[in-house]
Known about the structure:
Number of helices: 10
Oligomer: single chain
Low-confidence stretches: none
Shape: globular
Strand content: under 5%
Order of helices and strands: HHHHHHHHHH
Structural class: mainly alpha
Mean pLDDT: 83
Largest sheet: none
Amino acid sequence: xxxxxxILLIVCPLVFLGGVIDAVAGGGGLIxxxxxxxxxxxxxLASGTNKCGNAFGTILSTGRFLKxxxxxxxxxxxxxxxxxxxxxxxxxxxxxxxxQFLYYLMLAAVPAMAIFLLLKRNFGTENHSDELGxxxxxxxxxxIGLGIGCYDGFFGPGAGTFxxxxxxxLCRFDLLTASGNTKVANSASNIASLITFGLAGKVLWxxxxxxxxxxxxxxxxxxxxxxxxxxxxxxxxxxxxxxxLVVRLVSQLFI
Length: 255
């Protein structure tokens, strides 16, 4: 019991913070997964318990965005379906392709994304998705889910942030709608992952359930901030998440 209290004191505050960040700009896993490792959980158990802590909060965020009409449902569903298939493909790919190759690729791509966001001040301020036409929009959303779902299954960090950037840049949604669509894809992926880890006995429920409550609270606060402030808060949070991602990539690669 003393050890459990020690773990929860480390995990719960960081899962709450990760939930806030994830609901606004994605990438909360950059904080939550290291929290479990810091608390002393083995990597596979940390990954499974992390899904328990995150899945329910993401579902709550999805519900809030849906209630406020900030989800384009057809493209979100296709993106979610693509993410499920892509995650499976990525997991298979992980077994045959050296992970270090992707580290170098991401170290080049992530700073470029940050510079793009700093220079393009009007990025995601307006919704121009109707310019694509319905068929092209839906196909693009499905391919986004497939591609980034594959990345998520293969590697993972920052997948929610990349989904938001893709839904904004390629589907031409405003940042708020892109955030809502991302929640649908993330919910589908998290639930599938949680079931998989749970069946394999890789979830420490005594930690995961309290963490899930904290994740729900964090996602509630974060989704409220995003819905109220839109791009004003999402853009700066994007830069924070991209900075965290660069720090993690460098630390994983060189330390």
